[in-house]
């Protein structure tokens, strides 16, 4: 599994922590003694798939390296309601300062991983690959893409710099200038490195042959009916990968996969996700280390 680079993770966390406490945590600094200690437990309120464990732990490490974070689950692990996913122990001010940022990230990323796992389970056995899109939260793409992988899904191109993906608006500009899509693709191929892939989106069956004949690597069938997806797969006949996209839901993804497409892109994996219900329960009682107790957060 490809993991999020530490530098990219730290960049997200530094910005999030600065946003949440630009001049410190006034409440904790005026109420809590400097030597106060605390222990907290990351507890699942509902079942799901974990993602963001590294972000959760790293949040506290950046605030105070002496804070001890013990992870009881790894990214990609399934868990049930009531499971203790992690324990945090150390300086109370650091624990409370990092609480919201750590929770926000692990809740959202676990929501992405959990939803992705449901889509992946729905297409099991079909050979179709569930992938994300660029419909990510600005600034969180690197983490949300990791969450998709934690849920068993795959990633589409990371950015506009990674591959050619000619969509309807690109084709409209070309058409207005009298340039055929086939000619444009062949010209682009001559200018690109051999490692750069070309994908083209079409929204009608009569566009398929010209695009595939021009030598694309992937053809995206956008908002096609199930019957047209099957017809499109037959027309392509293995000459390119076939991607289905547009309005695909958990209720429809299995039927889409059954048409024979290779890839199913689902923007909802990241842009329509609900944060999972996870809580950070505080326990300040003596001798309670390692087990959630009846402290302030319980």
From TrEMBL:
EC number: 2.4.2.19
BP terms from Gene Ontology: NAD+ biosynthetic process; quinolinate catabolic process
One GO MF term: nicotinate-nucleotide diphosphorylase (carboxylating) activity
Amino-acid positions noted as binding substrate in the UniProt annotation, renumbered to this chain: 100, 133-135, 157, 167, 201, 222, 245-247, 266-268
Annotated pathway: Cofactor biosynthesis; NAD(+) biosynthesis; nicotinate D-ribonucleotide from quinolinate: step 1/1
Residues annotated as transmembrane: none
Record-level GO cellular component terms: cytoplasm
Residue ranges occupied by any Quinolinate phosphoribosyl transferase C-terminal domain in the UniProt entry: 112-281
Keyword Glycosyltransferase recorded: yes
InterPro entries in UniProt: Aldolase_TIM, NadC, NadC/ModD, Nicotinate_pribotase-like_C, Quinolinate_PRibosylTase_N_sf, Quinolinate_PRibosylTrfase_C, Quinolinate_PRibosylTrfase_N
Quinolinate phosphoribosyl transferase N-terminal domain: residues covered: 25-110
CDD domains: QPRTase
SUPFAM superfamilies referenced in this protein's UniProt entry, alphabetically: Nicotinate/Quinolinate PRTase C-terminal domain-like, Nicotinate/Quinolinate PRTase N-terminal domain-like
Catalytic activity as recorded in UniProt: nicotinate beta-D-ribonucleotide + CO2 + diphosphate = quinolinate + 5-phospho-alpha-D-ribose 1-diphosphate + 2 H(+)
Keyword hit for Transferase: yes
Alphabetic keyword roster: Glycosyltransferase, Pyridine nucleotide biosynthesis, Transferase
Subunit structure, as described in the record: Hexamer formed by 3 homodimers.
PANTHER family listed in its UniProt record: NICOTINATE-NUCLEOTIDE PYROPHOSPHORYLASE [CARBOXYLATING]
Physiological role: Involved in the catabolism of quinolinic acid (QA).
Homology family: Belongs to the NadC/ModD family.
Protein name in the entry: Nicotinate-nucleotide pyrophosphorylase [carboxylating]
Organism: Xylanimonas oleitrophica
Upper lineage: Bacteria, Bacillati, Actinomycetota, Actinomycetes, Micrococcales
């Amino acid at each position: 599994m490809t993991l999020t680079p530490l530098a990219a993770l730290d960049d997200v966390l530094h910005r999030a922590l600065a946003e949440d406490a630009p001049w410190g945590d006034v409440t904790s600094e005026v109420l809590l003694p400097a030597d106060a200690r605390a222990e907290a437990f990351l507890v699942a309120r509902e079942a799901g798939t974990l993602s963001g464990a590294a972000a959760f732990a790293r949040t506290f490490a950046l605030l105070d390296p002496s804070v001890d974070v013990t992870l009881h689950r790894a990214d990609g692990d399934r868990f049930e309601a009531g499971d203790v996913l992690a324990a945090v122990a150390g300086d109370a001010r650091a624990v409370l300062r990092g609480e919201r940022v750590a929770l926000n990230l692990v809740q959202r990323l676990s929501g992405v991983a959990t939803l992705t796992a449901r889509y992946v389970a729905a297409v099991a056995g079909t050979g179709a690959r569930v992938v994300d899109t660029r419909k990510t939260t600005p600034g969180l793409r690197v983490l949300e893409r990791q969450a998709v992988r934690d849920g068993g899904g795959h990633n589409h191109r990371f950015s506009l710099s990674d591959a050619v993906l000619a969509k309807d608006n690109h084709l409209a500009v070309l058409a207005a200038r009298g340039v055929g899509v086939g000619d444009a693709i062949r010209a682009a191929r001559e200018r690109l490195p051999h490692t750069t892939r070309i994908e083209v989106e079409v929204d009608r069956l009569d566009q398929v042959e010209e695009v595939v004949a021009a030598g694309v690597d992937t053809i995206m069938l956008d908002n096609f009916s199930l019957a047209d997806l099957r017809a499109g797969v037959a027309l392509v006949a293995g000459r390119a990968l076939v991607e289905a996209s547009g309005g695909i839901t958990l209720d429809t993804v299995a039927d889409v996969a059954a048409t024979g497409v290779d890839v199913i892109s689902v923007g909802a994996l990241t842009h329509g996700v609900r944060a999972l219900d996870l809580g950070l329960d505080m326990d300040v009682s003596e001798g309670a280390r390692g087990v959630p107790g009846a402290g302030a957060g319980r």
